[in-house]
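User: Hello! My lab partner asked me to get a predicted holo structure for this protein. The small molecule is pyridoxal-5'-phosphate, SMILES included with the sequence. Please write out the structure tokens.
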Amino acid sequence: MSSPDVLTPEEAADIRSRLDEVAGRTAAAAEASGRSADEVSILLATKTQPAEKIRVAIEHGFDLIGENKVQELVAKAEDLADLPHEAHLIGPLQKNKVNHTLRHAQCIQSVDNLELAEKIANRLDVLDSTIDVFVQVNTSREDSKSGVAPEDAEALVESVRRLDRLRLRGLMTIGLPGSTPEEIRPSYADLRELSARLRESGVLPEEATELSMGMSSDFELAIAEGATMVRIGSSVFGARDYT
Ligand SMILES: *Cc1c(COP(=O)(O)O)cnc(C)c1O
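Assistant: Hello! Below are the structure tokens for the protein in complex with pyridoxal-5'-phosphate.
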């Protein structure tokens, strides 16, 4: 994952100014929805980005990092081991990669089935440890997407709660890919309503208030719908190079 190129001072300055801009827009959106800026955290979605760029961001005070692939999570954890930060897995997790993930992630946002949750809990029993998790919900109602179906979310949340090793922080969703912000907005509203309903009925613990939703193209709308954590990639790091 680590690129051989060292960033130029201009490239590093560019990342810092983009971070400041995103933080300013996040704070403004939080205040517009009657919340304070510190009620919405910014998680950097760092897939495909080299550790050098992530290092600049962490040193600038943005220490919440989200990776999609376990392989990238592991590689960059080693590159960034000297810098305190919190790593979240925000992509699909195969059961055979749970061990690697638990070694390097402080939070798994993509828990979307009970088998996976139990596998994580069993491994944590061996390690005598715990981890933060989000239940990922497929609010876009697309067959191909990861996330538990909204109608099955209640049962999954109930089961996850029974696993003492997992600390449930809230719900996560990804909007429809490639659609306009206004098309995505209802799926963010759905997640907020689901969270409110499950907390009211006592299914979701009182403290599991997190709503992880919103990306570069729509994070202000997500905040308007109640996001407590937005996941930002390209607005900070530019377009991704998948080659
Ligand atoms: C890539 C990614 C993001 C961020 O996307 P951008 O549009 O680059 O901000 C957020 N969440 C998840 C799950 C992602 O994979």
